[in-house]
Design brief:
The complex is a heterodimer of chains A (658) and B (100). With 658 residues, chain A is mainly alpha-helical. Chain A is built from 26 helices and two strands. Chain A is 75% helix and 3% strand. In chain A, helix 14 crosses helix 21 and helix 15 packs antiparallel against helix 17. The radius of gyration of chain A is 30 Å and the shape is globular. In chain B, helix 1 packs antiparallel against helix 2. Chain B starts with a helix and ends in a 13-residue tail after the last helix. Chain B has three helices and no strands. Chain B has a single domain, classed as Orthogonal Bundle (Helix Hairpins), CATH 1.10.287.3510. Chain B has 100 residues and is mainly alpha-helical. Classes of the chains: A mainly alpha (658), B mainly alpha (100). Chains A and B meet through helix 26 of A and helix 1 of B.
């Protein structure tokens, strides 16, 4: 039954090997064919597996395939094993599905690039590792995937490595991620010490059991430590405060990479990891409090930075950071399903937005600055329509996808069972950030597609719609961005239309059941009036519409006056936000420089002076001098040697006799 | 009747002569003879002790040593001749290239 689960990661891996080793021989069309078909087949097998999963009754929704035993030392047993439950099922569909679409898009986008084979082999490798991350049945396999996607991200950010900026951006992403990975590793060690296993199927029932038996209290220090360490790992991979700085720079990579890795899949790995560890997080409310504050701050701060960026991809990058903040709010108010739901809808609309941005950049001949765009909608209508849909979706206008997921997160934040007051504050910040999101996303639309064209004559001449291989994926993703949210219709709205079920929530129930039980037992079952929920829903929609109309007012009706005037009036804030709160600079002086000097000290003084000069070379120097003195004895005269022998004999005699 | 002490003194004197000869003379042949002198001084001592102890094994041993020494002399002289053919020289102080 579960026998084919291994094919899902294997196919992209074979694609990676073929493209990587033979890519130059089989030609561009061969590379495209292999790259896309391996992912396409993996997608088909994923659908098959998920279908099988969905058909089985709720309590049996688990496919496990143990491939082989990897490490077996003492009581540490780690299998290379794949596991599919409703959570990884949704993830795997998003990962393989969106990857497939983006692979197809890449055949158009990279058609003229000489190193397309390299690009596709990296991309296939990325998908392989991402699938391992999602399907692994223990933390070690997840960590292998985790590191693997980091590597793929590094390689693809620096894909055009001939320009130093790109290589630097790749390095930055990799190094910042290392800090997070360190936390993840420590968290893993602590889990092993506490539970004696690293397999999901052992840890979570055991944790729930220990809590029920009273062996482990709610909020025990070790649990808080585990959760915070894992969260540190997640902040690195998922670009949250304090480790978000790498993501905007990661836009140096080709646009399909930004769409796939830095918007839809890899950066959501942290959210997946926390949702996967939901039982432990549920048992550590203090850790959740830290998480929710950090993620609310991320959602808000990143959104404000997005307002004043002029690079189309950077706007989307900050938007991604902000939306990831939303997902983290979701998982950290113990609404794990809502977080994953937003992850899914975000994968659709953000991948679509990035691919549209890629199409725009393609049309503009490589220019990414929105200040030189404008009025493009007539020239590239398909891109415009799809991007508009995705933008409406991200702004949270019903019935587009983003509305359902974002609203669920906000509602769950408002009713945060552990810290009700903090939940309300977070809800407020979230709504504010949603308004800002709507504002800057429509600013992007208006600056790019409306108004007058501000680029050069040459660019105006060059403008053209992208080929079908690029617009096709856009349409698919736009479709999903419009309708994808209907998988998780809240009961409130579902009841209006005659009991439309919340498919996703029901599907997830087995995964989060024990968390829900723990919360229910600890905080009591909560009842909220439907009136409040309606009001909040209407409120967030109103804020979104407010953001859009503000953007319309500033960037369409009064575009010649208002932006400049506002920048003048709020010049301090303008400079603060425009320079991204100087976070990069602060990190440079507070973190990078001290480490630089520390490394210089370790290199010049400890390594070069103490270890090399005094230690290794110093010993050699003494030995050389000593032997230099002794070798004078070897003067080549046989008689001298004889005399020494006699001397030796005399000494020996003296020893024996005396 | 010569006592054991006489033999020991004689053989010590012979050994000493050999040693001094080895360390001071330059002619390789003389060095060679000095070595033989030392060897035979020791042989003499061995025979004397053997006789004193009433054990014939020592004297048998000396016969063996003579045999081996003969072979050694043959090899040694051959080396000397080969050396002489190369450099036309038997002064041992000239053969000092094997150093450092």
């Amino acid at each position: 039954m579960e026998g084919y689960l291994y094919l899902i990661p294997l196919l992209p891996f074979i694609g990676f090997l073929i493209n990587g080793l033979l890519g130059q021989k089989i030609g561009k069309s061969g590379v495209f064919c292999i790259g896309c078909s391996s992912i396409g087949l993996a997608f088909l097998f994923s659908i098959l597996a998920v279908y099988q999963l969905a058909c089985s009754p709720a309590e049996d929704r688990l496919l496990v395939q143990v491939l082989w035993s990897w490490i077996s030392v003492g009581n540490l047993n780690i299998d290379i094993a794949l596991m599919m439950d409703p959570l990884s099922a949704v993830m795997i569909l998003v990962v393989t599905g969106v990857s497939f679409v983006i692979h197809i898009y890449s055949t158009g986008y990279m058609a003229h690039d000489e190193a397309a084979w390299r690009f596709f082999s990296y991309l296939n490798m990325f998908v392989f590792f991402m699938i391992m991350l999602v399907l692994g049945s223990n933390y070690v396999v997840m960590f292998v995937g985790w590191e693997g996607v980091g590597l793929a991200s590094y390689l693809l950010i620096g894909f055009w490595y001939k320009e130093n900026v790109n290589a630097d951006a790749g390095k930055k992403a990799f190094i910042v991620n290392r800090i997070g990975d360190f936390g993840f590793l420590l968290g893993m060690f602590l889990i092993f010490i506490t539970f004696g296993s690293l397999s999901y199927l052992d840890i979570f029932p055991k944790a729930a059991h220990m809590y029920e038996q009273g062996i482990m209290a709610m909020n025990s220090p070790v649990m808080i430590a585990i959760c915070l360490l894992l969260f540190l790992g997640a902040t690195g991979k998922s670009a949250q405060i304090p480790l978000f700085v790498w993501l905007p720079d990661a836009m140096a990579g080709p646009t399909p990479v930004s769409a796939l890795i830095h918007a839809a899949t890899m950066v959501t790995a942290g959210v997946y990891m926390i949702a996967r560890t939901n039982v432990l997080f549920t048992l550590a409310p203090t850790a959740l409090l830290v998480l929710v504050l950090m993620s609310a701050a991320t959602a808000f701060i990143a959104a404000t930075i997005g307002i004043l960026q002029n690079d189309i991809k950077r706007v989307l990058a900050y938007s991604t950071v902000s939306q990831l903040g939303y997902m983290f709010i979701g998982v950290s108010v113990a609404a794990y399903g809502a977080g994953i739901f937003h992850l899914m809808t975000h994968a659709f609309f953000k991948a679509c937005l990035f691919l549209c941005a890629g199409s725009v950049i393609h049309a503009m001949g490589g220019d990414q600055d929105m200040r030189s765009m404008g009025g493009l909608w007539k020239k590239i209508p398909i891109t415009y329509i799809t991007m508009l849909f995705a933008t409406i979706a991200i702004s949270g206008i019903p019935p587009f996808a983003g509305f359902f997921s974002k609203d669920e997160i906000l509602w769950k934040a408002f009713t945060f069972p552990y810290y009700p007051v903090v939940g309300k504050i977070v809800w407020f910040i979230g709504v504010l950030a949603a308004g800002i999101t709507a504002f800057y996303m429509f600013r992007l639309i208006f600056m790019t597609f409306h108004g007058k064209f501000r680029g050069t004559e040459e660019q105006a001449h060059h403008l053209h719609e992208s080929p079908l291989s690029m617009t096709g994926p856009l349409m698919i993703l736009a479709f999903l961005a419009v309708f994808g949210g209907w998988l998780g219709v809240p009961h409130l709205i579902g009841n209006l239309f005659g009991h439309v079920p919340n498919i996703l929530e029901n599907f997830f129930e087995p995964v989060f059941a024990s968390s829900h039980e723990i919360i229910g037992a600890y905080a009591g079952v909560q009842h909220h009036s439907t009136v409040v929920e309606w009001v909040l829903m209407a409120g967030s929609v109103a804020v979104a519409i407010g953001g859009i109309s503000l953007a319309y007012h500033i960037y369409i009706r009064r575009v010649d006056v208002l932006p400049g005037k506002l920048a003048e009036t709020f010049s301090i804030y303008h400079r603060l936000v425009y320079n991204k709160y100087w976070v990069d600079e602060i990190y440079y002086y507070v973190v990078v420089l001290p480490f630089y000097y520390l490394s210089m000290f370790l290199w010049k003084v400890v390594d070069a002076f103490i270890i090399d000069d005094i230690g290794a070379n110093g010993q050699a120097w003494w030995v050389q001098r000593g032997s230099g003195a002794l070798r004078l004895v070897h003067n080549g005269y046989v008689q001298t040697y004889g005399a020494f022998m006699v001397l030796g004999l005399v000494v020996m005699l003296w020893f024996f006799i005396v | 009747m010569a006592s054991l002490t006489h033999y020991i003194v004689l053989s010590s004197i012979l050994f000493g002569l050999g040693t001094v000869g080895f360390c001071t003379r330059r002619n390789a042949l003389i060095l060679f003879m000095s070595i033989e002198l030392m060897l035979n001084a020791v042989n003499l001592m061995l025979v004397a002790f053997s006789n004193f102890m009433g054990d014939m094994a020592g004297q048998v041993m000396v016969i063996f040593i003579f045999a081996v020494a003969a072979a050694e002399v043959a090899v040694g002289l051959a080396i000397l001749i080969a050396l002489f053919r190369h450099v036309r020289e038997v002064d041992i102080t000239k053969f000092n290239v094997l150093k450092w």
